[in-house]
Amino acid sequence: MNNTKWNEIFKAFYKNECEGGVLVYWSTKDKVNGYIYPWDATWTHFGCEPREWERIEYLQIRLTPENTEMVLDNLKKIHVPGDIVDNIVTVYGYRTDVDYL
Length: 101
Prior knowledge:
Blueprint: H1 3-18, E1 26-30, H2 44-47, E2 56-62, H3 68-78, E3 82-85, E4 88-92
Antiparallel strand pairs: 1-2, 2-4, 3-4
């Protein structure tokens, strides 16, 4: 996935946060060192500081009854590779063998 798509994801959920929208918890896995970032609902941690987007193996977003429609609508507009299992959306950074949301 290219940097533009990562930035679009950040902007969509950061805007939701700034406008007092529903909480959207996220986590990422670093493909270089395997570190899994703990669940966080502050999107400034995801995208405001300089990021090495190519290191993200995946982004996970926790779906809740309050945020599901908004999260899926945004991800479908951005057209990202991913899947949904057990109320967790996983957006893959650089896999080509998955469907797009």
